[in-house]
Prior knowledge:
The chain contains nine helices and four strands. The protein has 249 residues and is mainly alpha-helical. It has a two-stranded antiparallel ribbon. A two-stranded antiparallel ribbon has the order 3-4. Helix 1 packs antiparallel against helix 8 (200-220). It starts with a helix and ends with a helix.
Amino acid sequence: MMTSRFASVRWKAWLVILGGVLIHITLGSRYTFGNLTSYITSYLRERTPSEGIRYKDTTSIFLLLITCYGATVPLGGVLDERVGPRLVSITGCWLASLGVFLTYFSIQDSFYSVLLTYGLIFGIGSGIAYIPALVCAMKWMPEKKGLVNGLITGGHGIAAVIWNPIETEYINPDNLSPNSSLKEEPTEKYFAEAAVLDRVPSCFLILGITFACIQFFGVLLLFDPVSTYYNGVINLNDDLIAINLNDQV
Length: 249
């Protein structure tokens, strides 16, 4: 009886971890900026009034993204304690995906618009959504916090391996090389091919929608083990009792 109960509880724990991995695979997509920057910068130079923009300028997009992400990670932890992992995760995740989605429009406007969507909004959303999945999963496996953190943050780390080739295959399926260079800096090259530039905005549209869908399924798998409180004492629910008893056998 206890073994059957323990097996059921372990499956719940692994489902929560899977949800965390799915969420972090989308949040970690920010590390594909190195791959996207040549397309972003080239598009801004060729198709918007920001024709004088260079790589040294667009690196500020990633700088803003990382800064906003780092600044809002603690906020995600505070909100998680107050309202739970699902609401905080879906808010942060969809804010991040909204930032990516809106870049479809902002990249056709100006460099500063991209700063707002891909830098500020994507960064804030990523930071808010980072902590809740980790905390939720560790509650299910308190005796294996290192494993839980490693698996979920591993999804974060492997994101670039997943999304880089997808982005390149969509934007530049023929693997063309940049063919336009600066007179003052001949080694600094940009894309000018219409076939490549035409796909840049829609890439963000597709990524934003894809991330939101993956995040939705990931958030559905997040749920805290139920605990009860009496006279200030936390009483573990039957699920965690089953885990603890089995571990002692």
